[in-house]
Amino acid sequence: MFLQSNYVEFNTPQFKKLTNDQLVRLHHASLEILDRTGVHLDDQEAINLLKKAGVKVKGEKEVHIPPSLVEWALSVAPKRVVLCDRKGRRVMPLERNNVFFGPGSDCLNILDHRTGERRPGTLQDIVDGIRVCDASPNIDFLMSMFVASDIKDQSVADRHQMRAMLMNSTKPILFVTTEFEGCVDVVKMAEAVVGGEEELFRNPICACYINVSSPLHHNSDSLQKLLFLAGKRIPTTYSPVVLQGMNGPVTVAGAIALANAGELVGLVLAQLKCEGAPIILSGGYHDLFDMRTMVGIYESPEGRNGRAELAHYYGLPVFGLAGASDSKIPDQQAAAEASLSLLIETMYGVNLIHDVGYLESGKCNSLEQLVICDEIINYIKRFMQGVEVSEETLALDLIHQVGHQGDFLSTKHTRQHYKEDWYPKLFDRSTYEMWKSSGSKSLRESANDTIEYILKNHQPEPLPTDIQQAVDLILSEAGG
Known about the structure:
The protein has 480 residues and is an alpha/beta fold. The chain is built from 18 helices and 20 strands. Helix 3 (67-76) crosses helix 9 (252-273) and helix 11 (332-348) runs parallel beside helix 12.
Protein backbone atom coordinates (compact mmCIF):
# COMPACT_ATOMS: atom_id res chain seq x y z
CA MET A 1 0.00 0.00 0.00
CA PHE A 2 1.59 3.29 -1.09
CA LEU A 3 0.65 6.66 0.34
CA GLN A 4 -0.61 9.47 -1.86
CA SER A 5 1.73 12.38 -2.50
CA ASN A 6 1.89 14.62 0.53
CA TYR A 7 1.65 18.07 -1.07
CA VAL A 8 1.52 20.65 1.72
CA GLU A 9 1.08 24.43 1.70
CA PHE A 10 2.78 26.14 4.65
CA ASN A 11 1.25 28.98 6.63
CA THR A 12 4.08 29.56 9.11
CA PRO A 13 6.33 32.67 9.00
CA GLN A 14 9.55 32.73 6.98
CA PHE A 15 12.90 32.89 8.70
CA LYS A 16 14.89 36.02 7.80
CA LYS A 17 18.58 36.68 8.27
CA LEU A 18 19.08 39.79 6.15
CA THR A 19 17.64 43.19 6.95
CA ASN A 20 15.66 45.15 4.38
CA ASP A 21 18.58 47.55 4.08
CA GLN A 22 20.95 44.66 3.29
CA LEU A 23 18.57 43.32 0.63
CA VAL A 24 18.37 46.74 -0.99
CA ARG A 25 22.16 47.00 -1.02
CA LEU A 26 22.50 43.56 -2.62
CA HIS A 27 19.95 44.50 -5.27
CA HIS A 28 21.67 47.80 -6.05
CA ALA A 29 25.04 46.02 -6.19
CA SER A 30 23.67 43.61 -8.82
CA LEU A 31 22.28 46.55 -10.82
CA GLU A 32 25.67 48.26 -10.72
CA ILE A 33 27.43 45.14 -11.97
CA LEU A 34 25.08 44.88 -14.95
CA ASP A 35 25.31 48.58 -15.80
CA ARG A 36 28.98 49.22 -15.05
CA THR A 37 30.76 45.91 -15.77
CA GLY A 38 28.26 44.48 -18.25
CA VAL A 39 27.88 40.92 -19.51
CA HIS A 40 29.09 38.91 -22.49
CA LEU A 41 26.34 37.11 -24.44
CA ASP A 42 27.09 34.34 -26.95
CA ASP A 43 23.73 34.54 -28.74
CA GLN A 44 22.66 36.99 -31.42
CA GLU A 45 18.94 36.80 -30.67
CA ALA A 46 19.61 37.80 -27.06
CA ILE A 47 21.75 40.72 -28.19
CA ASN A 48 19.12 41.82 -30.72
CA LEU A 49 16.41 41.81 -28.04
CA LEU A 50 18.52 44.10 -25.88
CA LYS A 51 19.36 46.36 -28.81
CA LYS A 52 15.67 46.72 -29.59
CA ALA A 53 15.14 47.75 -25.95
CA GLY A 54 17.73 50.51 -26.36
CA VAL A 55 20.69 48.77 -24.77
CA LYS A 56 24.05 49.67 -26.28
CA VAL A 57 26.39 46.89 -27.33
CA LYS A 58 30.14 47.30 -26.82
CA GLY A 59 32.07 45.42 -29.48
CA GLU A 60 30.08 42.45 -30.75
CA LYS A 61 28.82 40.73 -27.60
CA GLU A 62 29.28 42.92 -24.52
CA VAL A 63 26.11 44.56 -23.22
CA HIS A 64 25.55 46.97 -20.33
CA ILE A 65 22.01 46.62 -19.00
CA PRO A 66 20.57 49.76 -17.36
CA PRO A 67 18.81 49.52 -13.98
CA SER A 68 15.54 50.78 -15.47
CA LEU A 69 15.30 47.75 -17.77
CA VAL A 70 15.91 45.36 -14.87
CA GLU A 71 13.26 47.11 -12.77
CA TRP A 72 10.79 46.79 -15.65
CA ALA A 73 11.49 43.07 -15.99
CA LEU A 74 10.99 42.57 -12.25
CA SER A 75 7.66 44.39 -12.45
CA VAL A 76 6.20 42.20 -15.23
CA ALA A 77 7.56 38.76 -14.29
CA PRO A 78 4.89 36.46 -12.76
CA LYS A 79 4.95 36.37 -8.98
CA ARG A 80 3.38 32.91 -8.96
CA VAL A 81 4.25 29.78 -10.92
CA VAL A 82 2.14 26.62 -10.65
CA LEU A 83 3.37 23.18 -11.70
CA CYS A 84 0.94 20.36 -12.43
CA ASP A 85 1.10 16.61 -12.26
CA ARG A 86 0.50 14.49 -15.34
CA LYS A 87 -3.26 14.48 -14.64
CA GLY A 88 -3.38 18.27 -14.82
CA ARG A 89 -3.85 18.79 -11.09
CA ARG A 90 -2.22 22.07 -9.97
CA VAL A 91 -0.29 20.53 -7.11
CA MET A 92 2.74 22.83 -6.75
CA PRO A 93 1.98 26.56 -6.40
CA LEU A 94 5.41 28.21 -6.19
CA GLU A 95 4.59 31.31 -4.17
CA ARG A 96 4.92 32.77 -0.68
CA ASN A 97 6.65 30.22 1.58
CA ASN A 98 5.30 27.04 -0.03
CA VAL A 99 8.13 24.49 -0.27
CA PHE A 100 8.38 21.43 -2.50
CA PHE A 101 11.12 18.81 -2.64
CA GLY A 102 12.75 16.69 -5.34
CA PRO A 103 15.94 14.83 -6.29
CA GLY A 104 18.76 16.10 -8.48
CA SER A 105 19.73 15.43 -12.08
CA ASP A 106 22.57 13.99 -14.10
CA CYS A 107 24.62 12.57 -11.26
CA LEU A 108 27.56 10.60 -12.63
CA ASN A 109 27.55 7.82 -10.03
CA ILE A 110 25.14 5.75 -7.99
CA LEU A 111 25.79 4.12 -4.64
CA ASP A 112 24.13 0.80 -5.43
CA HIS A 113 21.84 -0.09 -2.52
CA ARG A 114 22.16 -3.81 -3.23
CA THR A 115 25.95 -4.11 -3.41
CA GLY A 116 27.24 -0.96 -1.72
CA GLU A 117 29.29 -0.38 -4.87
CA ARG A 118 29.88 3.12 -6.22
CA ARG A 119 29.52 2.86 -9.99
CA PRO A 120 28.37 4.86 -13.05
CA GLY A 121 24.62 5.29 -13.38
CA THR A 122 22.56 3.56 -16.07
CA LEU A 123 19.18 4.10 -17.70
CA GLN A 124 17.73 1.36 -15.49
CA ASP A 125 18.97 3.27 -12.44
CA ILE A 126 17.00 6.29 -13.66
CA VAL A 127 13.87 4.16 -14.10
CA ASP A 128 14.29 2.60 -10.64
CA GLY A 129 15.01 5.99 -9.06
CA ILE A 130 11.93 7.58 -10.60
CA ARG A 131 9.77 4.68 -9.41
CA VAL A 132 11.11 5.19 -5.88
CA CYS A 133 10.34 8.93 -6.16
CA ASP A 134 6.84 8.15 -7.42
CA ALA A 135 6.18 5.96 -4.38
CA SER A 136 7.74 8.40 -1.88
CA PRO A 137 4.93 10.69 -0.71
CA ASN A 138 7.18 13.58 0.32
CA ILE A 139 9.20 13.75 -2.88
CA ASP A 140 7.04 16.28 -4.71
CA PHE A 141 8.72 16.55 -8.12
CA LEU A 142 11.16 14.65 -10.32
CA MET A 143 14.58 15.19 -11.78
CA SER A 144 16.47 12.62 -13.83
CA MET A 145 18.82 11.65 -10.96
CA PHE A 146 21.56 9.92 -12.99
CA VAL A 147 23.51 10.14 -16.21
CA ALA A 148 22.68 7.02 -18.24
CA SER A 149 26.25 5.96 -19.01
CA ASP A 150 25.07 2.87 -20.92
CA ILE A 151 23.44 4.89 -23.72
CA LYS A 152 25.88 4.76 -26.60
CA ASP A 153 24.93 8.10 -28.13
CA GLN A 154 25.17 10.51 -25.19
CA SER A 155 23.88 13.36 -27.37
CA VAL A 156 20.35 11.89 -27.00
CA ALA A 157 20.67 10.73 -23.39
CA ASP A 158 18.56 13.67 -22.16
CA ARG A 159 15.61 12.44 -24.26
CA HIS A 160 15.89 8.99 -22.67
CA GLN A 161 15.90 10.63 -19.24
CA MET A 162 12.75 12.61 -19.98
CA ARG A 163 11.03 9.50 -21.34
CA ALA A 164 11.90 7.60 -18.15
CA MET A 165 10.37 10.36 -16.01
CA LEU A 166 7.20 10.61 -18.09
CA MET A 167 6.74 6.84 -18.18
CA ASN A 168 7.36 6.07 -14.50
CA SER A 169 5.62 8.77 -12.51
CA THR A 170 2.77 11.26 -12.63
CA LYS A 171 4.65 13.90 -10.60
CA PRO A 172 5.80 17.28 -11.99
CA ILE A 173 9.21 17.29 -13.68
CA LEU A 174 12.20 19.62 -13.56
CA PHE A 175 14.23 18.62 -16.61
CA VAL A 176 17.77 19.31 -17.74
CA THR A 177 19.10 18.90 -21.27
CA THR A 178 22.63 18.85 -22.57
CA GLU A 179 22.17 20.85 -25.77
CA PHE A 180 19.51 23.19 -27.10
CA GLU A 181 18.15 20.55 -29.53
CA GLY A 182 17.46 18.23 -26.61
CA CYS A 183 15.41 20.96 -24.93
CA VAL A 184 13.23 21.26 -28.03
CA ASP A 185 12.61 17.50 -28.16
CA VAL A 186 11.91 17.22 -24.43
CA VAL A 187 9.29 19.97 -24.69
CA LYS A 188 7.72 18.11 -27.63
CA MET A 189 7.44 15.03 -25.40
CA ALA A 190 5.71 17.03 -22.68
CA GLU A 191 3.34 18.57 -25.23
CA ALA A 192 2.51 15.08 -26.53
CA VAL A 193 1.63 13.96 -23.00
CA VAL A 194 -0.64 16.89 -22.12
CA GLY A 195 -2.22 17.43 -25.53
CA GLY A 196 -0.38 20.30 -27.16
CA GLU A 197 1.51 23.57 -26.73
CA GLU A 198 -1.37 25.61 -25.34
CA GLU A 199 -2.27 22.96 -22.77
CA LEU A 200 1.36 22.76 -21.60
CA PHE A 201 1.34 26.55 -21.11
CA ARG A 202 -1.91 26.48 -19.14
CA ASN A 203 -1.08 23.42 -17.03
CA PRO A 204 2.71 22.95 -17.11
CA ILE A 205 3.80 19.50 -16.02
CA CYS A 206 7.45 20.49 -16.29
CA ALA A 207 9.97 23.27 -15.86
CA CYS A 208 13.55 23.51 -17.11
CA TYR A 209 16.70 23.91 -15.04
CA ILE A 210 19.32 25.84 -17.01
CA ASN A 211 22.91 25.86 -15.76
CA VAL A 212 24.73 28.93 -17.07
CA SER A 213 28.48 28.91 -17.62
CA SER A 214 29.19 32.15 -15.75
CA PRO A 215 27.24 35.11 -14.32
CA LEU A 216 28.98 37.56 -16.67
CA HIS A 217 29.55 35.26 -19.66
CA HIS A 218 26.41 33.51 -20.86
CA ASN A 219 26.92 30.58 -23.20
CA SER A 220 24.94 30.08 -26.39
CA ASP A 221 23.05 26.90 -25.40
CA SER A 222 21.80 28.40 -22.14
CA LEU A 223 20.57 31.54 -23.88
CA GLN A 224 18.89 29.57 -26.68
CA LYS A 225 17.06 27.39 -24.15
CA LEU A 226 16.00 30.43 -22.13
CA LEU A 227 14.52 32.28 -25.10
CA PHE A 228 12.87 29.18 -26.56
CA LEU A 229 11.21 28.35 -23.24
CA ALA A 230 10.19 31.97 -22.65
CA GLY A 231 8.51 31.96 -26.06
CA LYS A 232 6.66 28.80 -25.04
CA ARG A 233 5.89 30.31 -21.60
CA ILE A 234 7.32 27.25 -19.87
CA PRO A 235 8.70 27.87 -16.34
CA THR A 236 12.47 28.11 -16.21
CA THR A 237 15.23 28.39 -13.64
CA TYR A 238 18.24 30.27 -15.02
CA SER A 239 21.13 29.78 -12.63
CA PRO A 240 24.68 31.05 -13.10
CA VAL A 241 26.51 29.54 -10.11
CA VAL A 242 29.25 31.54 -8.41
CA LEU A 243 31.95 29.48 -6.70
CA GLN A 244 33.24 31.69 -3.92
CA GLY A 245 36.91 32.55 -4.40
CA MET A 246 36.96 30.82 -7.82
CA ASN A 247 34.74 32.54 -10.41
CA GLY A 248 33.49 35.16 -7.97
CA PRO A 249 34.35 36.91 -4.70
CA VAL A 250 35.12 34.69 -1.71
CA THR A 251 32.83 36.84 0.45
CA VAL A 252 29.15 35.84 0.68
CA ALA A 253 27.76 39.29 -0.11
CA GLY A 254 29.91 39.70 -3.22
CA ALA A 255 29.09 36.18 -4.42
CA ILE A 256 25.34 36.74 -4.00
CA ALA A 257 25.46 40.13 -5.77
CA LEU A 258 27.39 38.69 -8.71
CA ALA A 259 25.28 35.53 -9.07
CA ASN A 260 22.09 37.56 -8.76
CA ALA A 261 23.31 39.89 -11.51
CA GLY A 262 23.66 36.85 -13.78
CA GLU A 263 20.15 35.67 -12.91
CA LEU A 264 18.71 39.11 -13.62
CA VAL A 265 20.18 38.91 -17.13
CA GLY A 266 18.04 35.83 -17.71
CA LEU A 267 15.01 37.53 -16.21
CA VAL A 268 15.39 40.58 -18.49
CA LEU A 269 15.88 38.50 -21.63
CA ALA A 270 12.92 36.23 -20.86
CA GLN A 271 10.61 39.23 -20.40
CA LEU A 272 11.90 40.89 -23.58
CA LYS A 273 11.19 37.67 -25.47
CA CYS A 274 7.70 37.24 -23.97
CA GLU A 275 6.41 39.59 -21.31
CA GLY A 276 5.13 37.51 -18.42
CA ALA A 277 7.37 34.50 -19.12
CA PRO A 278 7.62 32.49 -15.85
CA ILE A 279 11.08 32.58 -14.26
CA ILE A 280 12.16 30.91 -11.01
CA LEU A 281 15.09 32.70 -9.35
CA SER A 282 17.61 31.29 -6.89
CA GLY A 283 18.36 34.63 -5.27
CA GLY A 284 22.00 34.66 -6.31
CA TYR A 285 23.11 31.03 -6.18
CA HIS A 286 26.58 30.71 -4.69
CA ASP A 287 28.67 27.75 -3.66
CA LEU A 288 32.14 27.32 -2.26
CA PHE A 289 35.22 25.13 -2.19
CA ASP A 290 36.92 23.74 0.85
CA MET A 291 40.21 25.55 0.36
CA ARG A 292 42.05 22.74 2.17
CA THR A 293 41.05 20.10 -0.39
CA MET A 294 39.66 22.16 -3.34
CA VAL A 295 36.53 20.01 -3.25
CA GLY A 296 33.24 21.72 -4.09
CA ILE A 297 31.05 21.85 -0.98
CA TYR A 298 27.34 21.13 -1.09
CA GLU A 299 26.48 21.59 2.57
CA SER A 300 27.88 24.51 4.55
CA PRO A 301 26.45 27.26 6.78
CA GLU A 302 27.87 29.88 4.40
CA GLY A 303 25.84 28.38 1.56
CA ARG A 304 22.66 29.04 3.55
CA ASN A 305 23.23 32.78 3.91
CA GLY A 306 19.99 34.31 2.81
CA ARG A 307 20.11 34.09 -0.98
CA ALA A 308 16.47 33.00 -0.96
CA GLU A 309 15.61 36.24 0.81
CA LEU A 310 16.67 38.21 -2.25
CA ALA A 311 14.22 36.30 -4.45
CA HIS A 312 11.52 36.87 -1.83
CA TYR A 313 12.46 40.57 -1.86
CA TYR A 314 11.59 40.54 -5.56
CA GLY A 315 8.41 38.60 -4.85
CA LEU A 316 9.40 35.87 -7.31
CA PRO A 317 9.48 32.06 -6.94
CA VAL A 318 12.80 30.74 -5.66
CA PHE A 319 14.85 27.63 -6.46
CA GLY A 320 17.25 26.04 -3.97
CA LEU A 321 19.23 23.02 -2.85
CA ALA A 322 19.02 20.84 0.26
CA GLY A 323 18.90 17.23 1.42
CA ALA A 324 22.37 16.57 0.02
CA SER A 325 25.58 15.71 1.85
CA ASP A 326 29.32 15.81 1.37
CA SER A 327 29.55 12.40 3.05
CA LYS A 328 30.40 9.39 0.87
CA ILE A 329 27.74 7.07 2.29
CA PRO A 330 24.33 7.43 4.01
CA ASP A 331 25.82 7.74 7.49
CA GLN A 332 25.45 10.06 10.49
CA GLN A 333 27.08 12.95 8.63
CA ALA A 334 24.71 12.48 5.69
CA ALA A 335 21.66 12.46 7.96
CA ALA A 336 22.84 15.52 9.89
CA GLU A 337 23.68 17.60 6.80
CA ALA A 338 20.49 16.61 5.03
CA SER A 339 18.33 17.41 8.06
CA LEU A 340 19.95 20.78 8.75
CA SER A 341 19.85 21.93 5.14
CA LEU A 342 16.27 20.76 4.57
CA LEU A 343 15.02 22.52 7.69
CA ILE A 344 16.93 25.75 7.00
CA GLU A 345 15.83 25.99 3.36
CA THR A 346 12.25 25.19 4.36
CA MET A 347 12.26 27.91 7.01
CA TYR A 348 13.62 30.34 4.40
CA GLY A 349 10.62 29.46 2.21
CA VAL A 350 12.60 28.13 -0.75
CA ASN A 351 9.83 27.06 -3.11
CA LEU A 352 11.65 24.41 -5.15
CA ILE A 353 14.31 22.39 -3.32
CA HIS A 354 16.35 19.93 -5.40
CA ASP A 355 19.30 17.52 -5.02
CA VAL A 356 17.65 15.49 -2.25
CA GLY A 357 19.67 12.27 -1.94
CA TYR A 358 22.98 13.57 -3.30
CA LEU A 359 26.21 12.42 -1.64
CA GLU A 360 29.92 13.07 -2.13
CA SER A 361 29.56 16.78 -3.00
CA GLY A 362 27.24 16.02 -5.89
CA LYS A 363 29.33 13.26 -7.45
CA CYS A 364 27.16 10.35 -6.28
CA ASN A 365 23.44 9.70 -5.75
CA SER A 366 21.90 7.30 -3.28
CA LEU A 367 18.38 5.89 -3.23
CA GLU A 368 18.92 4.98 0.43
CA GLN A 369 19.67 8.62 1.24
CA LEU A 370 16.64 9.69 -0.81
CA VAL A 371 14.31 7.40 1.16
CA ILE A 372 15.79 8.59 4.47
CA CYS A 373 15.26 12.20 3.35
CA ASP A 374 11.64 11.41 2.48
CA GLU A 375 11.12 10.64 6.16
CA ILE A 376 13.00 13.79 7.25
CA ILE A 377 10.91 15.91 4.87
CA ASN A 378 7.73 14.36 6.24
CA TYR A 379 8.84 15.41 9.73
CA ILE A 380 9.57 18.95 8.52
CA LYS A 381 6.27 19.24 6.65
CA ARG A 382 4.40 18.30 9.81
CA PHE A 383 6.39 20.81 11.87
CA MET A 384 5.78 23.63 9.38
CA GLN A 385 2.01 23.15 9.37
CA GLY A 386 1.76 25.08 12.60
CA VAL A 387 -0.78 24.66 15.41
CA GLU A 388 -4.57 24.94 15.31
CA VAL A 389 -5.99 26.90 18.25
CA SER A 390 -9.79 26.49 18.48
CA GLU A 391 -12.49 25.49 20.92
CA GLU A 392 -12.02 21.87 19.87
CA THR A 393 -8.25 21.84 20.29
CA LEU A 394 -8.19 23.88 23.51
CA ALA A 395 -10.55 21.28 25.00
CA LEU A 396 -11.39 23.39 28.04
CA ASP A 397 -14.62 21.51 28.80
CA LEU A 398 -12.73 18.22 28.65
CA ILE A 399 -10.01 19.51 30.97
CA HIS A 400 -12.67 20.61 33.44
CA GLN A 401 -14.49 17.26 33.12
CA VAL A 402 -11.40 15.13 33.67
CA GLY A 403 -10.25 17.44 36.40
CA HIS A 404 -7.50 16.60 38.86
CA GLN A 405 -7.31 12.90 37.98
CA GLY A 406 -5.61 13.77 34.68
CA ASP A 407 -6.56 10.60 32.77
CA PHE A 408 -7.21 11.60 29.16
CA LEU A 409 -6.25 8.28 27.57
CA SER A 410 -9.72 6.76 27.57
CA THR A 411 -11.60 9.87 26.41
CA LYS A 412 -13.43 10.17 23.10
CA HIS A 413 -11.43 13.35 22.36
CA THR A 414 -8.15 11.41 22.45
CA ARG A 415 -9.56 8.67 20.21
CA GLN A 416 -10.71 11.32 17.72
CA HIS A 417 -7.45 13.23 17.54
CA TYR A 418 -4.46 11.00 18.32
CA LYS A 419 -4.01 10.01 14.66
CA GLU A 420 -3.34 13.66 13.83
CA ASP A 421 0.09 13.28 15.44
CA TRP A 422 3.10 12.48 13.28
CA TYR A 423 3.97 8.80 13.04
CA PRO A 424 7.18 7.84 11.21
CA LYS A 425 7.31 5.12 8.59
CA LEU A 426 11.08 4.58 8.69
CA PHE A 427 12.40 5.92 11.99
CA ASP A 428 12.20 3.37 14.81
CA ARG A 429 10.28 4.21 18.00
CA SER A 430 9.94 0.73 19.47
CA THR A 431 11.50 -0.53 22.69
CA TYR A 432 15.01 -1.94 22.63
CA GLU A 433 13.61 -5.46 22.99
CA MET A 434 11.16 -4.98 20.12
CA TRP A 435 13.91 -3.50 17.90
CA LYS A 436 16.22 -6.40 18.77
CA SER A 437 13.62 -9.05 18.01
CA SER A 438 12.85 -7.38 14.64
CA GLY A 439 16.43 -7.79 13.45
CA SER A 440 18.27 -4.83 15.05
CA LYS A 441 18.12 -2.93 11.78
CA SER A 442 19.89 0.37 11.24
CA LEU A 443 18.12 3.25 9.52
CA ARG A 444 20.10 2.55 6.35
CA GLU A 445 19.02 -1.11 6.38
CA SER A 446 15.39 -0.08 6.82
CA ALA A 447 15.75 2.33 3.89
CA ASN A 448 17.20 -0.49 1.81
CA ASP A 449 14.21 -2.69 2.63
CA THR A 450 11.86 0.13 1.62
CA ILE A 451 13.57 0.51 -1.75
CA GLU A 452 13.31 -3.20 -2.47
CA TYR A 453 9.65 -3.24 -1.45
CA ILE A 454 8.88 -0.32 -3.77
CA LEU A 455 10.72 -1.81 -6.74
CA LYS A 456 8.96 -5.15 -6.23
CA ASN A 457 5.44 -3.89 -5.53
CA HIS A 458 4.91 -0.35 -6.81
CA GLN A 459 3.59 0.00 -10.33
CA PRO A 460 3.53 3.62 -11.58
CA GLU A 461 0.48 4.73 -13.53
CA PRO A 462 1.38 4.11 -17.20
CA LEU A 463 0.96 6.54 -20.06
CA PRO A 464 -1.78 5.61 -22.54
CA THR A 465 -0.40 3.51 -25.39
CA ASP A 466 -0.89 6.15 -28.07
CA ILE A 467 0.97 8.76 -25.99
CA GLN A 468 3.79 6.31 -25.32
CA GLN A 469 4.10 5.83 -29.05
CA ALA A 470 4.18 9.60 -29.65
CA VAL A 471 6.95 10.03 -27.06
CA ASP A 472 8.91 7.12 -28.53
CA LEU A 473 8.60 8.60 -32.02
CA ILE A 474 10.19 11.86 -30.86
CA LEU A 475 13.01 9.87 -29.29
CA SER A 476 13.45 7.79 -32.44
CA GLU A 477 13.56 10.86 -34.70
CA ALA A 478 16.29 12.30 -32.47
CA GLY A 479 18.37 9.18 -33.07
CA GLY A 480 17.64 7.46 -29.77
